[in-house]
Design brief:
single chain, alpha/beta, Rossmann fold, 7 strands, about 20% strand, binds S-adenosylmethionine
């Protein structure tokens, strides 16, 4: 088993969520076809997404934000074991209060799902003019498509917030929003000119 397979196996064992394989293929295609080089990731987990994207091309630089210190330490060690520390800068911070020092071609929102709207509004000003924002888990494992009596109160509240965000953003007339039925549901957003 190579290093990256070991990282993915440990993430699965520790129940650390990460993007689905078809979601990863889509991101890889988008990043390569649009020649994207500067990326901000909100929610690092164990670093699987950022490692996958950084491996595409040496010119790709990613800043990745992770709230939990324990996860950030494991992600940092994973990034080092893949020799990608020159391409991925990990910040152990709360994305809701962090202020970026630059603008990005691509912003990947994969942090607290109930805060998608707050994160989107906070980070949109840091998107380069022709950049993209991608939001993951819009289907939330199918939970956003149906309301069931056995959904807990917390789950219902999160599902409502994800659905409210989707409805809101699809009605923003100054944005292009594509609802991609890929992986766990992705929303791809860019500015209209
Ligand atoms: C779905 S995981 C990220 C997976 C990663 N993007 C991947 O695909 O490999 C979401 C991560 O967001 C982190 N997170 C939650 N709230 C956050 C916040 N306010 N700021 C930064 N990270 C946060 C969680 O600790 C968790 O590790």
């Amino acid at each position: 088993m190579n290093n990256f397979d070991q990282i993915k196996t440990k993430a699965t064992l520790d129940k650390i969520p990460s993007m689905t394989q078809d979601g990863l293929f889509y991101c890889e295609h988008l990043i390569l076809s649009q020649e994207i080089t500067s990326i901000l990731e909100i929610g690092t987990g164990y670093g699987i997404w950022s490692i996958s994207m950084a491996q595409l091309n040496k010119d790709i630089h990613i800043t990745s934000l992770e709230l939990l210190e324990k996860r950030a330490k494991i992600a940092q060690s994973n990034i080092q074991s893949m020799s990608l520390q020159d391409q991925i800068t990990l910040e152990n911070v709360d994305a809701l209060s962090y202020t970026p020092s630059k603008h990005y071609d691509f912003i990947f929102i994969d942090g607290p799902k109930s805060q998608n709207k707050a994160l989107f509004l906070k980070y949109l000003p840091f998107l380069n003019p022709n950049g993209y924002i991608l939001v993951d888990n819009i289907d939330f494992h199918g939970e956003t498509k149906t309301e069931r009596s056995d959904q807990s109160r917390d789950l219902k509240q999160m599902v409502r917030k994800i659905n409210d965000f989707k409805t809101w953003i699809l009605n923003e007339s100054d944005l292009n929003v594509i609802d991609l039925e890929i992986g766990d549901g992705l929303l791809l957003i860019s500015r209209k000119y």
